[in-house]
Each structure stands twice: as structure tokens, then as C-alpha cells.
Amino acid sequence: MAPIRRPAEPQIANRYVGTTRLARSFDPSDPSRGIMKPARTTVETNKPQAFTVITCKMRIFLVQTAHGLYAPSGGYRSNYGFLRQLGAYGHAVGQTCYAFDNEIDDAVAKARANGVDPQVKHLPDVDLGPDFETGTKRLDEKAFLESDALSSSLAALVNLWRTQIADFQPTHVVFNDGLTMKITENMVKMHQHQFKRVCVVHSAEQLPFGPFCGRFSGHCVSAEAENRMIRHVDGVWAVSQGVRDYALNHGGLQTTFMPHSTWTYLDGGRTPQRRDNVQKTEVGLVNPCALKGLPIFIELAKRLPHIRFITWKGWGTKKVHLDELAKLPNVRVEQTTTDTEHDIWDRIKVLLAPSLWLETWGAVITEAQLRGIPVIASDVGGIPEAKLGLPYLVHVRMATGEVDPVTGDYIMPQQDIAPWEAALRSLVDDDTTAYEALADRTARTTVQWIRGLDQHAQEKWLLNM
User: What whole-number distance in Å separates Cα of residue 283 and Cα of residue 347?
Assistant: First the structure.
């Protein structure tokens, strides 16, 4: 596979683009996940299934925009779970995604070690110019969205995407970005391809209206063009009632609300192992950055020096955040991990989720609660839905969309730390009886909730388009 070059971001300069087609025998614990077996373009059904299989088969192609073959973002994980679940139900599924240089070689080596002979197709070099993570908008992409004007570099990417989609012959294409929305719109307009186009809303920033529109570089490159296009797709999936209401109130856009597919959280449909972490001593935060409530996390660490805090780097973590954390002797910063079972859920007693932006759901909250780990979370966006009425939900003053020109972060209002401190003390400092009772209630409530969801909700929605 050939690298996509982003020279403005040397540490992540070389990326690959490729297509992954998932087979029925896919094992989520297999390190070779995402590698296509030879001549497998349809779904294997050689094992009896405990779920209903709908006879009308679909071909679902998904375009991933997160960076990394094992990206830690909730949107990436939910997309991946969605594909795995549909694949298990007998539908053909595929995806195109970005990956770092070393991930391709590692994935191939691990696949071969597990008896899989992967097919790796070398793709043409695509130079995208300045990386959008540096804050530079790609003017060539904006011109394409607004007037179909294609620079030579963007034309290479557009042709690559278009070829990957066409070769798969999908019945549905799922995406969350303006570029894919434009590519698929043109493909359908040319009457050479007929498939349903589905936009999934993973963040308010990707929507072409409202106070958060385009506040992240790379999200909503052209509000005018994307606002027009999104109203002509076949379906818009809002993953929470919070973001559904945001789309309706700020853009008059009708969406369909469905939580993430259940396999986002269930290991092949199986409930994850419940933890008994009452004797653990660490309090965790995933993806330390301003959006995820880093100011609250830092203040808690200062006020409670006897408590051990731990955090794992994520897509939002910047050097300025790490510099602040380095000043705190009771905070440990870990690298991003793909082994969350061992590195996160086996070791923390409490999870903090103090988000200060419009969090569309908060997948990490559901993941923790399924395992019986109490979560202290803020009351923004879709987080109250993810919390399921469980303690603790703390009121915060949410970001307004105003951006600090120096850091590129949202400017965060001052917060009242007292309720966060009180909640954390009750779970860490007080008698363990209260912790054990809440942990038990948390696991039971979350398992009951996820078992009560329609396991085929997304499948039925797509089939009815």
C-alpha cells in the first residue's frame, strides 16, 4: 500500500489507504483483524448463529476518517462494531481507512502468524499537502465541494476512493465526511452507480451549521456545500438524542436516532467480563485534552494529592496538555492503547468523563459501566443518555464554540470543582460498601439496557431505505 504524505506533520507524515473486507470468521481478539483473506469478498456462514439472519443481503461499504488502523476514537470503534455486526448477520461489509506505516507491516506479520495469508494491494501515492491537524484548511478540498474543481493531488485521492467504492459494488455507502459525501453524490448523479448514501453523525463539529460547525480543522470544510448535500442523502444517523436535537434545532435537519450498534461494546455479541476493582487505587481519564475535561482532571489531581490518577493519550492530546500533566506528581500518562481490557479496565477503580464539549455519546462511559466500573461524568450532549440514570452526573458549563487562537482548543469556562471532588471522595476515600453497591448496580443496569436494545436496528433501517 502506498503512503499518503502529509509533510506538515512529520511525526505522522506517512499514511496508507486501503480496503478491508471482513469475513464471518472474524475474531475481534485476533491481532490480524482487518486483514482480508484470499478470495473472500462475501461473508462466511459456516457456523450456526443464535440470531435472526435476514435473507435480503446488503453490501455495506464504510469510509473511515480516523487516523490509524486501530484508532482509539469512539467513532472509529462504533463504525468497526457496526461493520462486524452486519458481517455476522450475513451481509458483505468493507471499509477504506487510513493507517500508519508500521501498522500495515505489523498487521501482515500477525496475520501470517495466525495462519492468514493477507492480500496487500499497493495503491498509488497520494499527496494531500498540509495536514489538517495543523489547523490549515485544504483549499483544494473546499473548491471540489463547492464547484467540482479538482487539483491534481486531490484528484488522485478522489479517484482512489471512487474506485474502491465502485469495485465493492455496494448497496449502501456509510460516511461522516464532506469529501465522501461529494464523491458518492457525483457517482450517483452520473447514473453509473446506484446505492444508498448514509451519513453518521459522530460529532457536532462535522455538521454544516450551529455554533460548533467546522471548529475542528478537517471537519466541515465548506458549510454551504455540505449543508446542501447532507439534505439529499438517503439517511442521517444520529447516535444520540442530544446530537439529534442539535441537528434539528440549529439546522432543521431531520435525523434518525439510534445508539451505537451493540457490537461496539459486546465482544462478538458477548457481554464483557465484569470487574471487581474495589481494591484498585487509580482514577482514569481517556484522551486528556480540553474537550474531554482536562481542566477538571488537573484540578482534581491538585486537590487530591493522595489519589493516583492515570490517563491515556488520545486523538485530542497535544504537547501543551502533556506539559501541564507533567507538573503533577500523582498523575501518570500512558501511551494510547489498543488493549483496553488489560491496560485500562483491569486497573482503574473509577473513570472520569468530564467532557466540556457536545459529546455525542461517550462510548468509553458505556464500556466502563458494562464492566461495573463507576463513572463520574459531565451532563453535556449525549452523556446523560450514556449514563442511564446512574450516579454520578455533574453539571458543567459547556464550551460555546469559541476557539483559542494559540492552542486551537475551545475556550473553556471556569468550572465548579466541588461536586467532582465530593463524588470522587465518596468512591475512593469512603467505606468500600458504597463503591461495591454502585459497581454492582452499574453493571446490572448497563447490561440490562444493552440487552434491551434491538440488535437489528441498524440493519432494519438500512434495508428499509
Answer: 9
Long-range CB contact pairs, 145-154, < 8 A, 24+:
145/178, 145/179, 145/182, 145/221, 145/222, 145/225, 145/226, 145/229, 146/222, 146/224, 146/225, 148/186, 153/126, 153/127, 153/128, 153/129, 154/128
pLDDT of residue 52: 43
Residues across the chain? 465
Residue 50 grid cell = 443464535
Provide CB contacts within 8 A for 59, sequence distance 6+: 91, 92, 93, 94, 168, 169, 170, 171, 172
Q: What percent of the chain has pLDDT over 90?
A: 70
Domains of the chain: 3-266 (3.40.50), 282-451 (3.40.50.2000)
CA separation for the pair 288, 315 (Å, rounded): 9
Q: Supply the pTM of this predicted model.
A: 0.86
Q: How far is 461 from 345, CA to CA, in rounded Å?
A: 33
Find all residues with CB under 8 Å of 443, minimum gap 6, and list them.
274, 369, 370, 371, 372
For the segment 79-130, what is each residue's pLDDT rounded down to a tens digit? Answer: 999 999 999 999 999 998 887 778 888 888 988 999 988 877 766 666 555 5
What pLDDT, on the 0 to 100 scale, is given for residue 338?
86
Phi, psi of 198 (to 5 degrees): -125, 125
What region, left, alpha or beta, does residue 14 occupy, with left being phi > 0 and alpha being psi -120 to 50 degrees?
A: beta
Instruction: Tell me how far apart the alpha carbons of residues 248 and 242 are, in angstroms, rounded to a whole number.
Output: 10
262-294 pLDDT tens trace: 999 998 889 999 999 999 999 999 999 999 999
